[in-house]
């Protein structure tokens, strides 16, 4: 990079001398035109290099932002996994509670049916004994 700067400085000095000569002589040679054109192209190239450096900085910034987004996505995925685990645990707990209630309701229903039959038999036996006896 230092060699390019030295060459650029030398070309700049040469350009100044040529411009002075053009102003003094009020004439321009083909050689002068070529050198001035080269200098103009060189300046344009330096501008492009600066733009490229700016783009590199922007790209680096975008990489940082993308890294931040990846971290946020990972954090969100971890939180979703925690919620899934919590939800599954709550569903299991509710399932056990429902199963326990169903078993209790089943036992109560069977007891009610047996009690009804026992009551009916208790009422029917004295009636049958009177009818038979």
Chart the SSEs and their pairings.
Blueprint: H1 2-25, H2 30-132
Helix pairs in contact: 1-2
Commentary on this structure:
The structure is a single chain. The model has no long low-confidence stretch (mean pLDDT 84). The protein has one domain (2-132). It has 133 residues and is mostly helical. It has helices at 2-25, 30-132. It contains two helices and no strands. α1 packs across α2.
Compact overview of the structure:
The chain has one domain (2-132). The chain contains two helices and no strands.
Question: Can you give keywords for this protein?
Answer:
133 residues; mainly alpha; 2 helices; 95% helix; 0% strand
Tally of individual domains: 1
Sheet having the most strands = none
What structural class do the secondary elements suggest?
Answer: mainly alpha
- What is the count of β-strands? 0
What is the ordering of alpha helices and beta strands?
A: HH
Q: Please state roughly what percent of the residues sit in beta strands, choosing from under 5%, 5-15%, 15-25%, 25-35%, 35-45% or over 45%.
A: under 5%
Write down the oligomeric state. Answer: single chain
- Work out the radius of gyration: 49 Å
Identify the overall geometry. Answer: rod-shaped
Low-confidence parts, pLDDT < 50 over ≥5 residues? none
Mean pLDDT equals 84
Measured between the Cα atoms of the first and last residue, the distance is 129 Å
Query: Number of helical segments?
Result: 2
Q: Helical percent range? A: over 70%
């Amino acid at each position: 990079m230092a060699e390019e700067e030295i060459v650029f400085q030398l070309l700049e000095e040469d350009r100044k001398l040529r411009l002075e000569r053009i102003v003094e002589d009020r004439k321009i040679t083909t050689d002068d035109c070529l050198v001035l054109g080269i200098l103009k192209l060189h300046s344009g190239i330096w501008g492009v290099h600066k733009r490229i450096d700016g783009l590199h900085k922007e790209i680096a910034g975008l990489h940082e932002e993308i890294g931040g987004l990846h971290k946020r996505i990972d954090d969100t995925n971890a939180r979703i996994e925690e919620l899934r685990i919590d939800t599954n645990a709550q569903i299991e707990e509710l399932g056990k509670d429902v199963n326990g209630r169903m078993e209790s309701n089943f036992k109560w229903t069977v007891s009610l049916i047996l009690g009804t039959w026992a009551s009916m038999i208790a009422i029917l036996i004295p009636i049958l004994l009177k009818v038979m006896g």
